[in-house]
Design goal:
- By secondary structure, this protein is α/β, with parallel strands linked by helices.
- The chain is built from eight helices and twelve strands.
- The termini are far apart.
C-alpha cells in the first residue's frame, strides 16, 4: 500500500527531525523543505497528501507559500506558528490554510490533526462523487469539477471558498450559522475564531461582483450566519 506523503516546511532542523520520527512511526512518508523556495520546488515536482507549513521562514514566509499552494493545489495545509494572536490565525485561514498549531506544541497533537485533516479531505472527495451541477441564474456550481462559472466563464476560488460557497448553495434558502459552517468545512477540531467565515464570505462576494454577477447570492442573517438566495427568489 502506498504511503501517504507529508511535506514538512520548516527552517528548524531539530523540529523537522522530531516530526520525521512521529510521522514515520504513524506510517507516513515525509519530505522536507528548509524554506519556502524549496517547498515550491518540491510541490511542482511531487504530489502530497498534506503540507505542514511554518509561518516564520527566511526569503519566503509561510503566508506566501500558503497563498501559492491555494492558487494551484487543494492539498490540506496545517500551519505552524509562534504567532498566537487571533489576527494571525485568521490571516492564515483566510489565505486557505485548513488548520493551525501554535508553537510550542505536543507532537502527538500534530499527528492527531494530520490524521483529522487527511480524513476530512478524503470524506470531501468521496461526497463530491455523487454531486451534480447546481444551476442558478447566470451562475453554475460544478461540484465534481470544483468550478464556479459566471455567465459560463470560470472564476477562481480557493479550496475553502469553494467548499463554503458550495455548502451554502446546496442548502439554498436555509440559514446556516457560522458554527455550522465551521463544523462542516473546517471540522470539529477547529479552535479558531468564527470570523474566518466572514473573511471567506467577503472574498467570495468580491470575486462574484468582479466577475459581473448582477446580484449577490449570499445574504447575511444578522447575528446568526448566512444563506444562499438566488436571483429568482430575490424581490
Amino acid at each position: 500500500m502506498k504511503k501517504l506523503q507529508v511535506l514538512v516546511v520548516d527552517d528548524d532542523w531539530k523540529l523537522r527531525n522530531l516530526l520525521r520520527i512521529y510521522l514515520v512511526k504513524e506510517g507516513f512518508g515525509m519530505v522536507e523543505a528548509v524554506d519556502g523556495n524549496e517547498a515550491l520546488m518540491k510541490l511542482e515536482n511531487q504530489s502530497f497528501d498534506l503540507v505542514v507549513l511554518d509561518v516564520m521562514m527566511p526569503q519566503m514566509d509561510g503566508w506566501q507559500v500558503c497563498q501559492w499552494i491555494r492558487e494551484k493545489r487543494s492539498v490540506p495545509i496545517l500551519m505552524l506558528t509562534a504567532l498566537g494572536t487571533t489576527k494571525d490565525k485568521v490571516q492564515g485561514l483566510g489565505l486557505g490554510a485548513d488548520d493551525y498549531l501554535t508553537k510550542p506544541f505536543d507532537p502527538e497533537e500534530l499527528i492527531a490533526r494530520v490524521h483529522a485533516l487527511i480524513r476530512r479531505a478524503s470524506a470531501v472527495s468521496l461526497s463530491q462523487a455523487g454531486h451534480h451541477v447546481l444551476d442558478f441564474p447566470d451562475l453554475t456550481i460544478d461540484s465534481d469539477g470544483r468550478q464556479v462559472c459566471i455567465y459560463d466563464q470560470p472564476i477562481e476560488l480557493t479550496n475553502k471558498e469553494f467548499d463554503l460557497f458550495s455548502m451554502l448553495a446546496e442548502n439554498s434558502g436555509r440559514v446556516l450559522s457560522r458554527e455550522q459552517l465551521i463544523e462542516k468545512i473546517w471540522g470539529y477540531e477547529f479552535e479558531g475564531d468564527t470570523r474566518v467565515v466572514d473573511l471567506h464570505i467577503k472574498n467570495i462576494r468580491e470575486k462574484l461582483k468582479d466577475a459581473g454577477l448582477s446580484y449577490s447570492p449570499i445574504q447575511t442573517a444578522w447575528g446568526v450566519g448566512y444563506k444562499f438566495n438566488p436571483k429568482d427568489r430575490q424581490a
